[in-house]
Amino acid sequence: MGDDLASVMLTEAQIQDRLRELAAEIDADYAGQDLLLVGVLKGAVMVMADLARALHHPAEMDWMAVSSYGSGTKSSGVVRILKDLDRDITGRNVLIVEDIVDSGLTLSWLQSNLRSRGPASVSICTLLRKPAAAKVEVEVRYVGFDIDPEFVVGYGLDYAEKYRNLPFVGTLAPHVYS
Ligand SMILES: O=P(O)(O)OC[C@H]1O[C@H](OP(=O)(O)OP(=O)(O)O)[C@H](O)[C@@H]1O
Ligand code: HPA
Ligand SMILES: [Mg+2]
After folding, report:
1. Is the pLDDT reported for residue 106 higher than 60?
2. φ, ψ for residue 88 (rounded to 5)?
3. Is position 173 within any domain?
4. Residue 112 lies in domain
5. What's the complex ipTM?
6. Residue 112: inside a domain, yes or no?
7. Ligand 1 pocket, residue 106 CB under 6 Å
8. Is 102 a catalytic site residue?
9. Residue 32 lies in a domain
């Protein structure tokens, strides 16, 4: 796997430190309130696991699976629900937990889908955001890192389903794409 990577963009320690900071903000913002974390499979698995364990809030967790990327490196823009939430979210404070906001198409679609179900609130927490790649504006309340518009892998992020299990975020060497 070593030769497939061009660079390490964020180390494991940088990611964990930033998630602890975000968790402290979330703890303060939702103190004394209901909180349901909604992880977006599969990319958000690592963020959810580490963020949730850094929280002191007795938050609940649910999961959705949506897909817009298939096996390539560009969003198709067509979002499909592969797995819906297990429970009703009427009246709940929902915090969507994501690995990345790239074009914004997935999150913009997901946020309006969840808002149509009558929750008390819907906010977004993402580890990564690519401001220069935005095709739609999405209001993100908690952002780990703003990054350049390069394709990244690791810490949940895949290229054709590989590299999700890297503990850091890196960029791929050009030979991997060809
Ligand atoms: O802002 P966007 O351009 O819409 O891209 C972001 C979305 O794309 C990726 O998911 P993907 O659909 O590849 O599924 P995965 O999480 O299973 O990898 C990523 O995990 C985000 O959910
Ligand atoms: O840069 C990315 N890497 C992996 N998956 C992604 N899904 C959206 N953007 C990315
Ligand atoms: Mg993906």
Report:
1. yes
2. -65, 145
3. no
4. 11-150
5. 0.97
6. yes
7. yes
8. yes
9. yes
